[in-house]
C-alpha cells in the first residue's frame, strides 16, 4: 500500500487488536449515501482492492461511490477532495498522501459540513475527522521481521528495499528494523536502498546489485508487493530464489501468488477490502446520524505458505 | 518527336494562397544555351525554378524535356529527367562530409544494397579536382567559408551530368577569382550541350556568360532577348517597368575631417589593420573572399575579440569589447547574413525597425505609442519600404525590402559610423539603386560609411576611397585623387598582397 | 522538425496598430474557445460545475501551475526549457517552512526561498549561456541534483509548518477570493510589464527569435538567458512557497512532473517551442484548460485511468487545432 | 541556445580515410575514459565490482536502457525527441505476456508487441512530420494516452507470465552471457548497418542536420521522420518485451522515466540535441556510464539520497567535459 503514499503519524500501536465493530445493518437509510473517496494511487493493487471492498459494501443502487486517484500528488489530492465536496458528496473518505498536508482539505470539509473518514493512513489532526480506519504499518514491519527471522532460523544477512520519502513505507521500515534490532541479534541488516519509484522495474536493478555485493545474502525485506516482484525476478535470474528469503508488505493477489509459488516467505497483509468495507459502513452510520468509533484499527495478518490458500 | 529545345516550360501558373507568384510564364531553352533569368526581388524566378526542380508544384502548365512532356513531382523526378539545381540559399548538411553531401539523396549502392563508400569518395574527388577545390572528401562542411560551400554546391550540380542546370544566384557570395572558375565551367558545359538557366542580379555577368535573357516582372513573362542585342538600360526598364537612368547616378561622397582611426587592429583573423575614416566618406573595402573584411567589421563592432590595436573616434580612444559598447561609441553594423544576423524574421517590421531605439519610447514601464508610431513611419517613408503594413512579418518581405529594414533599424540609432557588409547581395537593381542613393544621402548628412563588397563596380562607383584587404591584412588604400583606380588594379593588390 | 515562425503569433505586435487586447484575443482564440467550450459543456452536463465554490477552488488549484508556467513561458520564449522547476519548488517549500518554524519573519523566509530559486536559475542560466550544452540536459541534471539535496537535508521527511499565518498564503481568502489568486495576479502584472514594457522583455523575445541577430543588435544574449532562467527559478520557488502553504508543510518529494504540466499550459497557450513567441495571458488560458479539464473529469466521475487518456487527447487535440488554425492563416 | 555543430563529432567520417573504429574512438574519447575511470575506481575501492557475475549482471541490467536509448539516439539524430518510450515499453510488455498466456507462439506474441510499437511510433512520426507541432508535445501526449490505455485495459493490474520459455529472453544465459546482451548485440549490428551503410541512414542524419537541404536533395524528410519514430517505437516495444521477461510479468506501471535515462545515455554518448550528430556506439558507452555508476554507488553503499546528487553531477560533469573538449577542438 506504499505506492506513492505517505503519512507521518501512526498513532495506533497495538498490532492486530480491536477489529471494527461490524456495522449494524439496521440503520434506516432515509438519505442516499454519496461517498467520495480519494486514494493516492490507483495503479497500486492495494488501493484497487480497497476500492472493490467499498463497492461491495454499497447497499442500495441509490447509493454512490466516487473514487479519485491523486496519482501520488499531494496537490492533486487536495484538488480532488474539493471537487468531491463541490459535487455534493455527503461523506468523504480519504487516504491521505500526507498526514500534515491534508489539514487544509479537512478544514474545507469541515466548513462545508461534510464528515471525513480517514482510512489506511491517519491524519495529524484527528479532531477534524469523524473516524480513522487504519492498519498499523509499523506493526507490519514487525511482522515481516518475525516471519523472515523464522525462515532464517534467527540468523543471517538481510537487505532492505525501501521508499523512505513516503511515510507509510518509512513506518514499515522502522518497524522492521526495530524488531530485528530488539529481538534478533544474529540477523544483520547489511544495507537499505530507496527505490526511485515503488515499482518492479526500479527495484529489480537494486536487488541485482545487492546480490552481487553480498554473495552471502540470506534475506530481503521490500516495502510492498510490486517492489518484491523486482527483487524476486532478480533472485530468480541469479538462481538464488531458494537461497534468499523475501518478505514484503501488502498481501495483494500478486504477493499471494509469490507465496504460493514458494518465491516469497510472507507478506504482511493489511486487509484492503476490509478497510474498504469498514469505511463504507462507517459512512452509512454517519449519514444516518449515528455515533461512530473515532479509531478503528484494522487487524493485520501475516500471510505465508500456511494460510495463503 | 525530336525537339530543338532541351527544356520547355509552358504556361506556368503558381499561387501561394492568394498571392499570385507566377502568371502564365513560358520559357524554352536550346541545348548549349545559357539563359539568364532576370527580374526584381520577388519576381518569381526562384519559384519558377523550384517548380522545375520538383520542390513546388505548378498550379497549371506543363514541362517538356527534349520535346517530351514530363511530370516533375519530386526532386527525384527532376533528377531523373536530367535537371540539377544550385539553390539560392546554400543548402547542405553541415554535420556531414563533403562526399556525403555530394551524394545526398542519390547514394551509390553496392550489389548488397549498402552504400558504396569507395565510389562515393572517388567520384567526389574527381568532381572537386575538376573545379580545382582542394579539400579532402571526408571533411565535414562545418567551418567552411560560405564561398567554399558555394563552390561545393556548384561542383555537386555540375557533377550530376544533367541536361539542364539551374544556377540560382551562384555568384552572390563569390569573389572574382571564383566567379571566373565558375564561368570556365559554364563554357565547358555549354560545349557539352548542357542547357543552363542562370539567375543573377549582377548585370555584367549576364552579358558575360549568357546567350539569352528572359525578364520576369511580378510573376509575368515580359520578354526574352539575345544578350548581344540587348542593352543594360533596356533590361533594367523591362525589369522595373519604367525608364531607368543610372544605377550609379550619385556623385561620390567626399570626406571631411578624420572621424575614426583604427590603429594596428588584430583579431583571430585580422592582422594589423590600420586606417582612418573621414567624416561623411564612403570607405570601400575590397578583397578576395576570405580576405578578412567581414572579420575587420566584426572586430570593430565588438563581436570578435580584439587582441590588440586601438580604435579612436572623434579624438577619443574607445574600448570595444561587445556590440553594446560599439553601439554606444556610434558604430552600426549591417551584417552580411541578412536573415541569420540582421532580422527577427518571425517578428513584425515595426519590432525590427525600432529594436535599436527601444529606450526612446519605452521607459518606466510605459510605451509611448505615439512616439513609436512616429519613429516607424519616419523610416518607413525614408526608405520607401514596400509592405502591406508595419505589422507584417519581416520574413514575408522580399530580400531588398528586408535589407532596407535592417538599414533603417540602424539608422534609427543615429550612428556616426555605419558599416555595410555586402549591402546589396542578392538585391535587384531597383533596390540597389535606392541603397546607393541612401548611402550618398547619409554621407551628405555626415555619416561615415564603411562598405564591404565583393562587387568591384559597386566599390569603384560608390567609394570615396578604397581599402584593399588580402589574407587578413589591409594592403593598400586607394585614393582616387592620387591613385588610378580600375578593377584590375584592385585585383592586383588583392592577389599580390597575399603573395608578400 | 516543426520549425516555423507562426506569422500571427508574435507577441510583439505592439506599436502601430490600435488595440493590444484585441490582438491578443485574436491570437489566442483557439485556447480561449477551448476553455469556454469546456466550461459550457460542464455547466450543462453537471450541476456542480457552475457553482461559485467550485469555480473558486478551481482557480485556487490552478495557481501553482500558473506560477511555474509563467517561468516556463519566459524560458520557452527565450528559446530554452527548464526541467528543474519541480525540484526547485519542493526545495523552496522546505526552506520556507523550516525557516518559519525557526521563528524568522515570514517575509525573510519567503525571500530566502526566492533567493534560492534565483541562484538555482542563475546556475542553470550560466551553464546554458556559457556553453553549448542544451538546456534540457542542464536542467535535467539540476532537477536530479536538487531533488537529491532536498532529500539529504530533510532525510526525505516532510516538515509540518507551525506558523498559521504562513498557511494562509495558500489556504486563505481575501474578499472571498483565494489568496493564491492575488499572488498570481500580482506576479502576472509585474511580469506583463517586464515582458512587454521593458527593453529586457523585448530582448527576451529577440534572443529566442534569433539569438544571432540579437547579438548583432547589441543584446547581451548571455545575460538575457541568465536572467530569464533566474526568473524561472524564482517563480518556481514562489510556487513552492504557495504549495507548502496549501499543504501546511514543506515536503521534499512534491513537484515531480510539475514541469510537464507547466509546459503543457504554455504550449496550449500558444507559446512556441522554437522560441520568440508566447504570451503570459495565453499561459493563463492554457493552465485554465488543464484546470477545468481535471476538475470537469472529476465532476463527471470519469474513471482515473480514462482521465489519462482524455488528458493526453485534449493536449494533442488542442495543439492540433491551433496548428490547423495557424496553417490556414499562413495560406491566406 | 546551444546551437552548434561540433566539427569533430559528426558520426559520418566513415569511408575514405583509414580506420572507422579509430575515428569513432577518438570522437568518443571522453565518455570512454569516463566509463573506464569509473571501472578502475570501483575495482580498487570495492572487491565486489570486478567479479564476473557482477559485470555480467551489470550488462544485463543495461540492456533495457540501451535498447530504448538506441531508438532515442536515432530520433535525436533525426532532430526529434520521443518521450513516449516508457509507456510504449510497458504496454508492449503487457501485450506480449497476455498473448503468451493465451497460448500463442512466442514469436507471434513478440511480433505483435513490435507491431504495436511500430504503430505508436508511426502515429508520432506522422503527426510530427505532417504538422509543425513539436515532437516534445506530440510524444508527451502519446506517453500519457498510452499509459492510460494500458491502465484501462489491465485495470492497473500486472499479469504474471506463465510461459517459462518467454522468461528466458530476459533471464536466460547463452554460453555464459545473458540473453538480453545477445538481443542488444543483434539489434546493434542491424541498426549499425541501417544508420551507416544505407541511404536511409544517411537520410536520417541529413534530415536532422539540415531538413531543408535534405529536402532539396530529394530526401523525403517526412517519410524519414516517420520511419525513425517507428524504429524508436519498435525498439521501445522490444525493450518492454525484455523487461517483461525479466520481471516474469507484464506490468502497466513500469517504464516511467525511461526516456530520461535513455536521453542521458544518448547525450553522454555524444548525440547532439540539435540533430545530425550521434553514434550508436557512443550510446552504448553512455548507457554503460549510467549502469556502472548506479551499480558502483550501490556497491559502495552510497545513501540513496546522495545517489541522486551524484547521478546529476556525473551527467552534468560528463557533458561539460565533452563540451570543453569540443570547444578546444573548435579553437584549433
Ligand atoms: N513558400 C512560399 N510561400 C509563400 N510565398 C512564397 C513562397 N516562396 C516564395 N513566395 C513568394 O513568391 C514571390 C516570388 O518569390 P521568388 O523567391 O520566386 O522570387 P525571386 O524572383 O527568386 O526573388 P529574389 O531575386 O529575391 O530571389 C515572392 O513574393 C515571395 O514572397
Ligand atoms: N567561424 C569561423 N571559424 C573559423 N574561421 C573562420 C570563421 N569564419 C570565417 N573564418 C575564416 O576567416 C577568414 C576571413 O573570413 P571571411 O570569409 O568572412 O572574409 P571576407 O573578406 O569578409 O570574405 P567574404 O567575401 O566572404 O565576406 C577566412 O579564412 C575564413 O575561413
Ligand atoms: Mg530567388
Ligand atoms: Mg564577408
UniProtKB/TrEMBL annotation, chain B:
Keywords: ATP-binding, Cell membrane, Membrane, Nucleotide-binding, Repeat, Sugar transport, Translocase, Transport. GO terms for molecular function: ATP binding. Transmembrane segments: none annotated. It comes from the Bacteria. The keyword Heme does not apply. It holds the Pfam family ABC_tran. Residues 7-243, 254-496 form the ABC transporter domain. Coiled coil: none annotated. PROSITE patterns: ABC_TRANSPORTER_1, ABC_TRANSPORTER_2. This is Sugar ABC transporter ATP-binding protein. The lineage of its organism: Bacteria, Bacillati, Bacillota, Clostridia, Eubacteriales.
From TrEMBL, chains C, D:
InterPro entries: ABC_transp_permease. CDD domains: TM_PBP1_transp_AraH_like (cd06579). It is a multi-pass membrane protein. It holds the Pfam family BPD_transp_2. The keyword Cell membrane applies. Its main location: membrane. Keywords: Cell membrane, Membrane, Transmembrane, Transmembrane helix. It comes from the Bacteria. This is ABC transporter permease.
Amino acid at each position: 500500500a506504499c505506492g506513492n503514499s505517505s503519512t507521518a503519524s501512526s498513532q495506533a500501536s497495538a498490532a492486530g487488536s480491536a477489529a471494527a465493530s461490524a456495522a449494524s445493518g439496521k440503520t434506516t437509510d432515509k438519505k442516499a449515501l454519496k461517498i467520495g473517496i480519494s486514494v493516492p494511487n490507483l495503479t497500486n493493487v492495494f488501493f484497487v482492492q480497497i476500492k472493490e471492498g467499498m463497492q461491495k459494501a454499497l447497499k442500495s443502487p441509490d447509493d454512490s461511490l466516487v473514487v479519485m486517484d491523486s496519482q501520488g500528488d499531494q496537490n492533486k489530492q487536495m484538488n480532488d477532495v474539493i471537487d468531491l465536496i463541490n459535487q455534493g458528496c455527503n461523506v468523504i473518505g480519504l487516504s491521505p498522501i500526507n498526514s500534515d498536508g491534508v489539514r487544509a482539505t479537512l478544514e474545507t470539509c469541515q466548513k462545508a459540513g461534510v464528515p471525513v473518514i480517514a482510512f489506511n493512513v491517519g491524519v495529524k489532526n484527528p479532531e477534524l475527522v469523524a473516524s480513522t480506519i487504519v492498519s498499523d504499518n509499523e506493526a507490519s514491519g514487525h511482522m515481516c521481521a518475525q516471519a523472515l527471522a523464522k525462515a532464517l532460523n534467527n540468523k543471517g544477512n538481510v537487505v532492505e528495499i525501501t521508499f523512505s520519502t513516503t511515510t507509510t513505507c518509512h513506518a514499515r521500515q522502522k518497524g522492521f528494523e526495530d524488531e530485528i534490532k530488539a529481538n534478533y541479534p544474529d540477523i544483520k541488516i547489511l544495507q537499505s536502498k530507496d527505490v526511485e519509484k515503488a515499482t518492479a522495474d526500479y527495484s529489480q536493478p537494486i536487488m541485482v546489485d545487492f546480490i552481487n555485493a553480498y554473495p552471502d545474502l540470506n534475506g530481503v525485506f521490500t516495502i510492498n508487493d510490486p517492489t518484491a516482484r523486482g527483487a524476486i525476478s532478480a533472485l530468480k535470474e541469479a538462481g538464488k530464489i531458494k537461497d534468499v528469503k523475501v518478505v514484503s508488505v501488502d498481501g495483494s493477489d500478486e504477493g499471494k501468488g509469490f507465496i504460493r509459488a514458494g518465491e516469497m516467505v510472507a507478506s504482511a497483509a493489511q486487509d484492503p477490502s476490509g478497510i474498504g468495507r469498514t469505511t463504507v459502513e462507517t459512512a452509512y452510520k454517519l449519514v444516518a446520524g449515528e455515533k461512530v468509533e473515532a479509531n478503528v484499527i484494522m487487524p493485520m495478518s501475516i500471510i505465508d505458505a500456511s494460510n495463503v490458500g | 518527336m525530336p525537339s530543338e529545345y532541351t527544356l520547355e516550360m509552358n504556361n506556368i501558373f503558381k499561387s501561394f494562397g492568394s498571392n499570385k507568384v507566377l502568371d502564365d510564364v513560358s520559357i524554352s531553352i536550346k541545348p548549349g544555351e545559357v539563359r539568364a533569368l532576370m527580374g526584381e526581388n520577388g519576381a518569381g524566378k526562384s519559384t519558377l525554378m523550384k517548380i522545375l526542380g520538383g520542390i513546388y508544384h505548378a498550379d497549371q502548365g506543363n514541362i517538356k524535356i527534349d520535346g517530351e512532356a514530363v511530370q516533375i513531382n519530386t526532386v527525384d523526378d527532376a533528377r531523373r529527367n536530367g535537371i540539377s539545381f544550385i539553390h539560392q540559399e546554400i543548402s547542405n548538411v553541415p554535420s556531414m562530409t563533403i562526399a556525403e553531401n555530394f551524394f545526398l539523396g542519390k547514394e551509390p549502392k553496392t550489389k548488397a544494397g549498402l552504400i558504396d563508400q569507395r565510389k562515393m569518395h572517388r567520384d567526389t574527388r574527381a568532381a572537386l579536382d575538376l573545379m580545382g577545390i582542394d579539400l579532402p572528401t571526408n571533411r565535414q562542411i562545418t567551418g567552411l567559408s560560405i564561398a567554399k560551400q558555394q563552390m561545393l554546391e556548384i561542383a555537386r550540380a555540375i557533377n550530376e551530368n544533367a541536361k539542364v542546370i539551374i544556377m540560382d544566384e551562384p555568384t552572390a557570395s563569390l569573389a572574382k577569382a571564383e566567379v571566373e572558375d565558375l564561368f570556365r565551367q559554364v563554357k565547358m558545359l555549354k560545349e557539352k550541350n548542357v542547357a543552363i538557366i542562370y539567375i543573377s542580379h549582377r548585370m555584367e555577368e549576364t552579358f558575360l556568360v549568357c546567350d539569352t535573357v528572359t525578364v520576369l516582372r511580378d510573376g509575368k513573362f515580359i520578354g526574352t532577348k539575345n544578350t548581344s542585342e540587348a542593352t543594360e538600360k533596356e533590361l533594367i526598364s523591362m525589369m522595373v517597368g519604367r525608364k531607368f537612368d543610372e544605377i550609379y547616378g550619385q556623385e561620390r561622397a567626399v570626406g571631411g575631417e578624420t572621424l575614426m582611426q583604427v590603429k594596428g587592429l588584430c583579431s583571430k583573423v585580422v592582422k594589423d589593420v590600420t586606417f582612418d575614416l573621414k567624416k561623411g566618406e564612403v570607405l570601400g573595402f575590397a578583397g578576395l573572399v576570405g580576405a578578412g573584411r567581414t572579420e575587420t567589421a566584426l572586430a570593430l563592432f565588438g563581436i570578435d575579440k580584439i587582441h590588440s590595436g586601438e580604435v579612436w573616434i572623434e579624438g577619443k580612444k574607445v574600448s570595444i569589447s561587445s556590440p553594446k559598447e560599439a553601439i554606444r561609441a556610434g558604430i552600426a553594423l549591417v551584417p552580411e547574413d541578412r536573415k541569420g544576423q540582421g532580422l527577427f524574421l518571425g517578428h513584425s517590421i515595426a519590432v525590427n525597425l525600432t529594436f535599436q531605439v527601444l529606450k526612446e519610447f519605452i521607459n518606466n514601464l510605459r510605451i509611448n505609442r505615439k512616439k513609436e508610431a512616429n519613429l516607424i513611419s519616419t523610416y518607413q517613408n525614408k526608405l520607401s519600404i514596400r509592405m502591406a503594413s508595419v505589422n507584417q512579418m519581416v520574413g514575408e518581405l522580399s530580400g531588398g525590402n528586408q535589407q532596407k529594414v535592417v538599414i533603417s533599424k540602424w539608422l534609427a540609432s543615429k550612428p556616426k559610423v555605419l558599416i555595410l557588409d555586402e549591402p546589396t547581395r542578392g538585391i535587384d537593381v531597383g533596390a540597389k539603386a535606392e541603397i546607393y542613393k541612401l548611402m550618398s544621402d547619409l554621407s551628405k548628412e555626415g555619416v561615415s560609411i564603411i562598405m564591404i563588397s565583393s562587387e568591384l563596380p559597386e566599390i569603384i562607383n560608390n567609394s570615396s576611397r578604397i581599402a584593399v584587404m588580402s589574407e587578413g591584412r589591409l594592403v593598400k588604400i586607394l585614393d582616387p585623387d592620387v591613385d588610378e583606380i580600375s578593377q584590375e588594379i584592385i585585383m592586383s593588390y588583392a592577389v599580390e598582397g597575399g603573395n608578400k | 522538425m516543426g520549425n516555423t515562425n507562426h506569422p500571427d503569433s508574435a507577441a510583439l505586435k505592439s506599436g502601430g496598430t490600435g488595440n493590444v487586447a484585441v490582438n491578443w484575443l485574436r491570437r489566442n482564440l483557439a485556447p480561449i474557445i477551448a476553455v469556454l467550450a469546456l466550461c459550457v459543456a460542464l455547466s450543462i452536463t453537471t450541476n456542480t460545475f457552475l457553482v461559485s465554490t467550485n469555480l473558486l477552488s478551481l482557480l485556487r488549484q490552478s495557481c501553482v501551475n500558473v506560477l511555474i508556467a509563467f517561468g516556463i513561458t519566459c524560458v520557452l520564449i527565450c528559446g530554452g526549457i527548464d526541467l528543474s522547476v519541480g525540484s526547485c519548488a519542493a526545495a523552496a517549500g522546505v526552506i520556507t517552512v523550516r525557516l518559519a518554524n525557526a521563528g524568522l519573519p515570514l517575509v525573510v523566509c519567503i525571500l530566502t526561498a526566492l533567493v534560492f530559486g534565483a541562484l538555482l536559475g542563475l546556475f542553470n542560466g550560466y551553464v546554458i549561456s556559457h556553453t553549448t550544452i542544451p538546456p534540457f540536459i542542464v536542467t535535467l541534471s539540476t532537477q536530479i541534483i536538487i531533488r537529491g539535496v532536498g532529500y539529504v537535508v530533510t532525510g526525505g521527511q516532510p516538515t509540518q509548518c507551525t506558523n498559521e499565518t504562513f498557511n494562509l498564503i495558500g489556504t486563505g481568502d481575501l474578499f472571498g477570493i483565494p489568496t493564491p489568486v492575488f499572488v498570481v495576479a500580482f506576479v502576472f502584472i509585474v511580469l506583463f510589464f517586464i515582458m512587454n514594457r521593458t527593453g529586457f522583455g523585448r530582448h527576451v523575445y529577440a534572443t529566442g527569435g534569433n539569438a544571432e541577430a540579437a547579438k548583432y543588435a547589441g543584446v547581451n544574449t548571455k545575460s538575457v538567458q541568465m536572467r530569464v532562467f533566474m526568473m524561472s527559478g524564482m517563480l518556481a520557488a514562489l510556487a513552492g512557497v504557495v504549495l507548502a502553504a496549501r499543504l501546511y508543510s514543506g515536503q521534499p518529494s512534491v513537484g515531480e512532473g510539475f514541469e510537464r504540466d507547466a509546459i503543457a499550459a504554455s504550449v496550449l497557450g500558444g507559446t512556441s517551442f522554437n522560441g520568440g513567441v508566447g504570451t503570459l495571458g495565453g499561459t493563463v488560458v492554457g493552465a485554465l484548460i488543464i484546470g477545468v479539464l481535471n476538475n470537469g473529469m472529476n465532476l463527471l466521475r470519469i474513471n482515473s485511468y480514462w482521465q489519462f487518456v482524455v488528458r493526453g487527447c485534449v493536449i494533442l487535440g488542442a495543439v492540433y487545432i491551433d496548428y490547423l488554425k495557424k496553417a490556414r492563416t499562413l495560406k491566406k
